[in-house]
Specification:
Length: 344
């Protein structure tokens, strides 16, 4: 499987590490050899149709340099669109930064890859939150796969669970704590009685929150994940414009104390029913959704199976890269294409 890797940051580098360490086992167990034939970052590309040396790439990126400095294969200033257009490959991994206002540059990369009949595995939520129905249609039309397991819950196989394990059942609702940063902040407010700004500072120091945390704190990240689940798991045709979003900015220490007094905790809850909403809510302290710290949790309600909750780390380079590999194996197994079915 010839792979173009777009974005060689935390996720892209973790993917390279997994391939370096597990390549032989992947080939033995799954019968194919994944090979990165091109890697692109913001400054250029490295291209080798026989496969790049991933150790060289990791050394360059570890030193803060561009893949374009690969001594034998580097191409300064070459863009991802050039590479997608010109390099022969079976799959494109899209792991460039999320930009929610316009989904770019990832949206153009995904569209270009699908148009070239390349299977796509995305970890970037932006393009999906804005245009998932259209992208799914394009993938279907081109008879290739578009997968994005790492976008919801990183390594927690939330999308695979809803898609494959509930076949024949009907998912009636999904509720989730889908953002680690806000959950960390609310947990610290609950446990240590600190204010929101103190908790945010702690989250930034601990590496959970970005320098600009607006995307998490305002509930946008959670909304993106709901949009992806709505389209992929429930057959809905929605984008982020269809989500009613309220972040955690207005949560006060008094709210947190009121929750405690009634054996509840304040959480940023994403809900997918007839309406799709993100808002702070009281959750029963004993409900499986009441996870602490940076953990994520998702509760599915299905007609036959009842309520099922998955809990785990919802972010991290290795976790997300593991999800990318799962998608690639899945694409390979389903003869490179197909939507893989879904619950009723
Ligand atoms: N990290 C996580 O835990 C996690 C979990 C789930 C999903 N995600 C999503 O996965 C994506 C990647 O995350 P990350 O943490 O790996 O981000 P990151 O560390 O910031 O890396 C982004 C990479 O994209 C490259 N890039 C930027 N603009 C580009 C362009 N125009 N063309 C090609 N490459 C470009 C950057 O190049 P330079 O190296 O030159 O700067 C960098 O290599 C994001 O959309 C993120 O939201 C991340």
């Amino acid at each position: 499987m010839r792979i173009i890797l777009v974005g060689v940051g935390t996720v892209g580098q973790a993917f390279c590490k997994i391939l370096l360490h597990n390549k032989n086992e992947i080939t033995r167990l799954y019968g194919f050899e994944p090979k990165v034939v091109a890697a692109v970052d913001s400054r250029g590309a490295a291209v080798n149709p026989s496969g790049l040396d991933l150790e060289i790439l990791l050394n360059l990126k570890g030193g803060g340099k561009s893949v374009a400095l690969d001594p034998s294969n580097g191409k300064k200033g070459v863009s991802a669109l050039d590479v997608i257009e010109e390099v022969d490959a079976d799959a494109v991994i899209e792991a460039s930064p999320t930009r929610i206002n316009d989904g770019e540059p990832g949206l153009s990369f995904i569209k270009a890859a699908l148009r070239k009949k390349r299977n796509v595995v995305a970890t970037n939520k932006g393009p999906l939150a804005l245009a998932l129905p259209a992208l799914m249609e394009l993938a279907e039309y081109k008879n290739v796969a578009l997968r994005f397991s790492g976008t919801v819950g990183a390594g927690i196989p939330i999308l695979d669970f809803g898609k494959k394990c509930l076949l024949g059942d009907r998912i009636t609702s999904i509720r989730g704590i889908l953002n680690g940063t806000t959950n960390y902040i609310l947990t610290r407010m609950t446990e240590a009685g600190v204010t929101m700004s103190q908790a945010l500072e702690e989250a930034q120091k601990a590496g959970y929150a970005e320098a600009d945390p607006a995307y998490d704190v305002k509930g946008i990240d959670t909304a993106c994940k709901l949009v992806i689940m709505a389209n992929w798991l429930m057959g809905r045709d929605v984008t982020i414009k269809d989500v009613d979003i309220q972040g955690i900015e207005s949560v006060t220490p008094a709210d947190v104390e009121k929750a405690k007094a009634t054996n509840n905790v304040v959480k940023l809850v994403g809900t997918l029913e007839d309406r799709i909403t993100v808002h702070p809510a009281f959750v029963d302290r004993n409900h499986p959704l009441a996870v602490d710290g940076a953990l994520n949790a998702v509760s599915f309600k299905a007609e036959s199976a009842g309520e099922i909750t998955m809990v785990g780390r919802g972010a991290g380079g290795m976790e997300t890269a593991g999800a990318v590999l799962r998608d690639l194996i899945d694409i390979r197994r389903s003869s490179w294409r197909g939507s893989g079915g879904r619950a009723l």
